[in-house]
Design goal:
This protein is an alpha/beta fold. The protein contains 25 helices and 22 strands. Belongs to the enoyl-CoA hydratase/isomerase family.
Amino acid sequence: MQRFKAASLVRNGLHNCRLLSHCRGLCSLPDHALNDDLGHQVLVEGKAWSRTAILNRPSALNALTTAMGARLQKLYKSWEDNPDIGFIVMKGSGKAFCAGGDVVYLYHMINKGKIEECKQFFSTLYAFMYMVGTCLKPHVAILNGITMGGGAGVSIPGTFRIATDKTVFATPETLIGFHPDAGASFYLSHLPGHLGEFVALTGERLNGLDMIASGLATHYLHSSRLPLIEEELGKIVTDDPSVIEASLDKYGELVYPDEKSVLHRIELVDKCFSHDTVEEIIDALECEAGRTNDAWCTSTLKRLKEVSPLSLKVALRSIREGRFQTLDQCLVREYRMSLQSITKQVSNDFCEGVRARVVEKDFAPKWDPPSVEKVSNDMVDQYFSPLTNLTSADSLISSALQSKQAQRERERERREREERERERENDDSGVGANLLGQHSAERNQDATAYVGNLDPQVSEELLWELFVQAGPVVNVYVPKDRVTNLHQGYGFVEFRSEEDADYAIKVLNMIKLYGKPIRVNKASQDKKSLDVGANLFVGNLDVDVDEKLLYDTFSAFGVIVTNPKIMRDPETGNSRGFGFISYDSFEASDAAIEAMNGQYLCNRQITVSYAYKKDTKGERHGTPAERVLAASNPTSKSRPHTLFASGPPTLANGPQSNGTMGAPVPPRPFANGGVGLPPLRPPPPQGMAFPPMQMSVQPAWQGQPQQPGQMPPPQMQQFRPPPPNMPQPPPQGAPAPPRSLPPPMAMGNQQPMWRPPPPQMRPPNMQHASMPPPPPLNNPPLPPPMS
């Protein structure tokens, strides 16, 4: 009996070994064995409003095949068309997210002369990568483990990318005689400085910290917390990207690159890899290595000499062209370049590199040409020229991308149609209907306030009772889910006039309903047209600085178009020490940087600079391209964001940055109750008569209560002669032009400071008619008026 058990154990062990060996060698099979278990290579996991695609080839590091790409296309298309699915998640099984395309499979197909199957491989995967980049629903990629080549191509074009402590990113295509493909020429070209050229040419690996710093990833957390964030994502029942981002921020960590990161050498990278040719890049590295004896320069040179010389020149040109192309243009060009590589019309470097480094692993590839000097420009040009005998294949990827664009247009039209039908159904059934029965399409958008961050217990009736205190309400509309009959956390309140809506925004924003502060904005604001790029980062903030203080401080320089945002800890709610401000023009943002950078706010010296762009991998706002677009876009000038403002309603001509404000509009009931301050005038040059002071202010509406944070009306000023011990001002030369003052209500609730003029500028008999005369002073009589 014991012998039988022992024999069984031996047989089971041998069977397991054979099975493991078979799985590890599966990716090298040249036939259709890869398709035998396709359903298990891409798994699907469903949650409330999300679907998760799991790449499940751990033995091959989840390398992508043609069949996997086709299945992913089919899944994503069905999910994108399904209105009950809000967003999509992608992750990998095992120790890798995705190691890219299955190059061993391609190697065998090329050697067997099956070029058509290779074309199908590239066209299928590239079309899916474009689908990820243009997906109408938010896309979350969990990059836990190896993320290389095509693995980056199916994740980085998406909305959110989560990096962990186990993330390893690289584009090692030049090591196997290929070129950085799968959209790499698009996203690498947008990395900070010339980091993209460095990563593309050397194949250097980046960790999760580097991905966050360079913009390749949007969030970072420790791999041990992945179950928590996956559970959090499974509870989300909306397709709103801001809600998903808030859930990711809840578990995200604020991290910085470690000491060994190449980002600490970004200046040296820019100095060496900014040259026009590979030869010049190598010469610059050799010069730096000889001058500084830097080990990093030496190792980089060694790495460049190990890769294919032809791939170096092709990759450098590809990155430089991708900097001025869109994602679809890059994919079409990379498709042509990939077909040139597999047809061996120029060189056999791809097959030689795969043989030496992946198949036979002798690590001694014989490149053709063997050196950079022998790579001619004609050889490089052939990679970027239109295909000759493969013209039909060249249009394959283009037709797939055009089909995707047409699908997106049809999907957008379908959603708009469903939204109109849903509104009609709601109006007919009473679910989420306007309380006064007015159809939502007939709302006056300028007089409508958007109300967000609503608790599930908030009803239309409660919103009506709340907002009617600010002015006459015409209707209230809160969209509701057709299945659960629960509202989606936001609604719209229409007032009788635009002034009533402005007043409601000022007094009701950030009040708490059921413990949650509601957001009240202008519903007519087009967020896309508001964002001209004048977005600032404000750092080193004191814990006592809140959003209103930021608004009061920075609105002195121009119109703030969105809610100032202070990043806070999701658990404690405390400030993390930095925030963001968006202006409607670069003139205002430039003035804010010049005036406020390095100044003290609440006893801390703050830093003010342009913020990083979210969609360009580390580039800051304020670029010349943004300024040109903002100057040529007439819709970029929008109404100011009146979230925290306490002044009069916006005038037709709008406030002027760092200038005087126009005369205020007289207040009225249920309008903006603030009383504007009189315009301040700079003192005249010496030797001129003092201008008459206009100090009359129209009284406020008598029935209106004073609102919190609202500036009281200014007190009337009267002229009093200076005390006799006041020193006389020194004589001045030619007067300088007067400097314009900031708007008087912009810097909080401080009253404008008026100082008496010097004696030689003192006007005679200046006294307000409605005020008692000043008490007599024992001063010498005033001098006669100056002519």
